[in-house]
Fold this protein.
Amino acid sequence: MFIIPCKYDGTLDGVLQRSPIRECIQSIVELHPNEKVVVVDSDSGDKSYFQDIQKYDNVTILDCRNNNRVCGAFYEAYKNFPDKETYILVHDSLIFKKSIQSFIDSEIECFSLMYFIEHFSNWSSQHDPYSWNILDNSNYERPMSGSVTGCFGPMFVAKNRIVGNMEKKGLFKNLTVSNKTECAMWEKIFGEVLRQEGYCPTKYNIEGDFKSKVNQVGSNGLEYFVKLRLGRA
């Protein structure tokens, strides 16, 4: 099941930025016709896009006024559909070029779409307290020194058992995302969680290292997808 957070009418420097949700949905439906798609609306002021994507039989819209951005949409979809075999979290600004069905069907339980590594000497002094408070208030551990592997996006493919563990271990119990910075911290949170679940993004990924391919991400240089940079707040 694909999960897509959508803020249709975001702004950048006062200029309206429309989500390319239609193109995102079309690429998924064409390449993965048997997969359910759940769009979680992030309290969009303009919901006219609903009528365009409702024409697809396998697309469901959760008009739940999600204000917790990407990770909030992920959890809303899981709560509504807790029995799906596989969950694929992507952004509404991602357009698939090639099917990832082999990763969805794999016996491996989790793949990040991409990863990145960030080095640090002390987590608490170099990171916003938001990130380590989330981990400290769950049954996951935060790294104390060395490096942390981020799950770019965050976007990933995860089996039901992995997502169920996230909920059981309290990852979502303090879920509140107030701004873009906090949303970005979930790249590192999910990266660390997936590492502790046995699926470190450096090994289990689809498109490799984001930092080494940063110029390819939005320029059609990757094999499986194009990620548009909308710069939304």
The CA atoms of residues 133 and 174 lie 9 Å apart. DSSP finds nine helices and twelve strands in the chain. The longest helix spans residues 180-196.
